[in-house]
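agent> call fold_tool(seq_1)
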Amino acid sequence: MPSPSASQPLDTDASDVRSVVARYRRAERAVGWTLALLVVVAFLAAVVAISFWPGVAVGAVIVVALRVPVFRRRGSTRLRTDASPGAVVRRFGSARPPNLAFQWGVADEVRSAADTAASTDAATDRSAPGTDATYEFSYLLGLKSVELDLSVDVSGRDAVDDAAVGESDSDHPPVATVEIEGTADGRPWASYAATVRETTDGGTVVDLELRPTRRFGLRRLPQGWVAERYYAEALAAQGYEVVERSVSMTR
């Protein structure tokens, strides 16, 4: 695992991160096209086996079944890094949280309300916590677009300064908690809580909770499998080791 400097924020622009995101994107597109092809094959098979209109009805049922929201995702992940708690809090509180690399990594544009503040603080290489950001995505050759709005709130901000981080006791109390709320076109998209703790050896542990705020259709399952395949790699490229991870589906 990479060992970033304890005094610097973790780098989200490294070539390793871009490489992992690019491989994820290729795999996701391949899975998406494969699913679409299977739907077309099922439709044609139904038309040949019965007749045209009943086949159309079967195809419509398949499409609806794939799109109807039927499940939610919940989970927890423990991350470990050699970076300081202050650097980790700043990164999770930025416009590009490490756990959303597959979103900001493939977005056509990332707009941040803290862009001006970030440029002002460039000399100290610190980004402002509590950043609100918008990720813009386009599809269907640019004919349609969707915006993912991100609201980030950091509690315990007095601990964001590295100098303000004291020694943790044996229970490793939280240095700070970062709440990340995402909405897509005004509807809930995802909700995360990242609790940051300092370890006795000077590193940092992050307990990341995924809250079940939105239902997904079955067509999202293959995309989720692809994301799970590259999840640990994307975080490792940013300097984090996935120590434990548990994700489940609920109604």
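agent> call fold_tool(seq_2)
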Amino acid sequence: MVRRAVRRLRVTALALVCALTLAACAPLFPGEAEGPFDGDWLLVQAGWGEAQFTVAGAGITLVSDGESASGFSGCRQYAYAMTGEAEDFGFGDPLEPGPTADPYEDMLPCNGSLERIESRYLSVLLAAERAEVRGDELLLTAGNSYLFFKAFPPFPGPQLMGKQWVLNGYGDTWQDRWTTDVIGSPTLRFLSRDRFVGTLGCGGIAGTYRILGTEVFVTSLHRYGADGCLSAFSEQDQLLAQFLDGFRVIVVGDEHLVLAHRRLQLMYRALPAE
């Protein structure tokens, strides 16, 4: 029953991120420099010539601020300078993705299919001739190929505060590897707009964070142990501590929380109020 419930939660979360229209999210941020498609976007569909290629679960993203375009392309981070204006844009020199680009490189193996998807994605992206923004949707076209994106939802701060969340499961959306055999009861609590605490299978964490667009960046993270910790906790705790160093937050209903980074997801449920 628990496994079926988590599977339903996983499907719900993926549907929310990869398919639903996110009506509450505006793709152009007021007050910011507005380029051809400013915002944070997730690739949900793509056409390569006359055929489509599967992208769901690959975690391909595009972040644009009018001056640069960056994101995760399926295997690695990318970043390019942008040139021209909104109606006549292009891509210039490649840029360094930045220091927070790849904290989970060893945990996300890049197989042949992902490499092919990444190659196709970048070739269409860099050849894009037209951008259309309609509400929370973005369509980039290059000849008879296209990339279709949905906007990421904003950070749901008010829905997180005052609740304690307990880990239900975690996994990789692309490899379809999931576990509900969580060791212990790791928890997470957002105390304010810039501070959070949590427990691991063994010990705990405390940290501060800031929000940039839809991304949560941890500005400090302290992990502390506990006497008599068992070695069985170590692999899971290492994963959780690394994962919580930067993530996106999706709230599903009132009781479920998904933390997402690329293809990885942590799934939490809210504990009843005491």
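agent> summarizing second result for user.
Helices lie at 2-18, 112-126, 157-160, 234-243. Residues 2-18 form the longest helix (17 residues).
agent> awaiting next instruction.
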